[in-house]
Amino acid sequence: MTERTTKKHADTSALPPLVAADDPEGDPASWWRRRRDAGPAGGARKPPWFLAMLGIALLIGMHFIAPLSGGVYAFTDWDGFNTATFIGWDNFREIMDSSVQRGALLHTFVLAGSYLVLVNVVGLVLALALNRTLKSRNFLRMVFFAPAVLSPLAVSYIWQYMFTYDGAINRMLGGIGLDGLRREWLGDPSTAIWCVLVVMVWQHAGQAMIIYLAGLQGVADELEEAAVIDGARLWMRLRRITLPLLAPAFTIVSTLMLISGLRVFDQVFALTGGGPVYSTETLATQVYQQTFVEGRFGFGASIAMVMTVLISVLGIANMMYQRSRERRL
Predict the structure, then answer these.
(1) Helix or strand or coil: residue 99?
(2) Which of 39-43, 66-70, 321-325 is modeled with the greatest confidence?
(3) Which residues does residue 76 pair with via DSSP β-bridges, in sequence order?
(4) Which residues pair with 38 in a beta bridge?
(5) If you average pLDDT over residues 204-226, what whole number do you get?
(6) Given Cys at both, which of 78, 135, 199, 255 links 298, Cβ 3.0 to 4.6 Å?
């Protein structure tokens, strides 16, 4: 009995071990991982860094090199077909000397500034109203946010019908006895730009509302309750508690809406086409007009460069200001 047991143990000990005794990673799982990561020839499989570098190069090419190379034409008189001739700063001088281009720059600032203020105010009011325990708040949130996901061109064409002389707005005014206010809203230079602003705010106020609603989720109910116990009124709670805690959300909304307002094109193109009498021309519509309608590709590139610089400078400045304001609050 003892002899058979001894022989059995001797035969077992003669078998090769699964893991070498002197293996610094003497773990079967480590051994299988090394086998899995080994290449076809038994060497270690290396990460394909060249693929990552290729993707980074393509990203840089699409976002930086292409616009910069296109910006070279801003200093030429290229018409899209013939050889471009370098003319220096003549295109930019023409932008400053032309009343149409100066008007487009002014209209861009007017639309962007008014749009920035109104979208923030309307979006914040909607967010505060729909943050309460209303039974229909989810449905109302969907209704107010729905225009933000629609095509700007489709929305603008719908509003174009409403602004016509026989449209819904004039019919409503006539129905309540205000016939004297009826007019061709998009055909009047004094009201056309404000009609564009109404459409922009109507479409994007819901987007600001969603961002502010997300920020309101971070306002603890205990702070509101403590302020109520201390006797703080609604306006004081809003000013001292809610608005300071919404500072990050305001930074996001203001930056997005400022950029969107400075590059507005779809609403103007669909509603007025820049008219009447250039009263709604913006930098973006002038880029289209000069480049693709009049064939002045060099001049259109110079307007696009001005618009790019304005968006970059004002966007970065607004972001830095809002960030510093958050730290002060």
Answers:
(1) helix
(2) 321-325
(3) 86
(4) 44
(5) 88
(6) 78
Tokens found for residue 106:
């002014």
Residue 274 tokens, joined: 């820049």
Which phi and psi (to 5°) does residue 44 adopt? -70, 140
Mean pLDDT value of segment 81-90:
89
Which two tokens mark 292?
């693709």
Q: What are phi and psi of 86, to 5 degrees?
A: -70, 125
Q: How many CB atoms lie within 10 A of CB 299?
A: 28
Burial 36-62 (b: 16+ CB within 10 A, else e): eeeeeeeeeeeeeeeeeeeeeeeeeee
CB atoms under 10 Å from CB of 223, counted, come to 14
Tokens, residue 163: 């602004």
How sure is the predictor about 131, in pLDDT bands with cuts at 50, 70 and 90? confident
How many residues would you count in the chain? Answer: 329
**Among candidate residues 317, 193, 194, the one with its CA nearest the CA of residue 254:** 317
Whose tokens are 């002197």? That residue is 22
**Whole-number Å distance between alpha carbons of 28 and 33:** 9
CB atoms within 10 A of CB 99: 8
pLDDT over 70, % of the chain: 85
Cα separation, 58 vs 67, whole angstroms? 13
Distance CA 38, CA 322 (A): 52
pLDDT in tens, 221-262: 788 778 878 777 878 888 888 888 899 999 999 999 999 999
For the whole model, what pTM was predicted?
0.80
Residue 313 has pLDDT above 50, yes or no: yes
Which residues have a Cβ under 8 Å from the Cβ of 235 and sit 6 or more positions away?
A: none
Q: Rounded to an integer, what distance in angstroms lies between the CA atom of residue 185 and that of residue 170?
A: 9
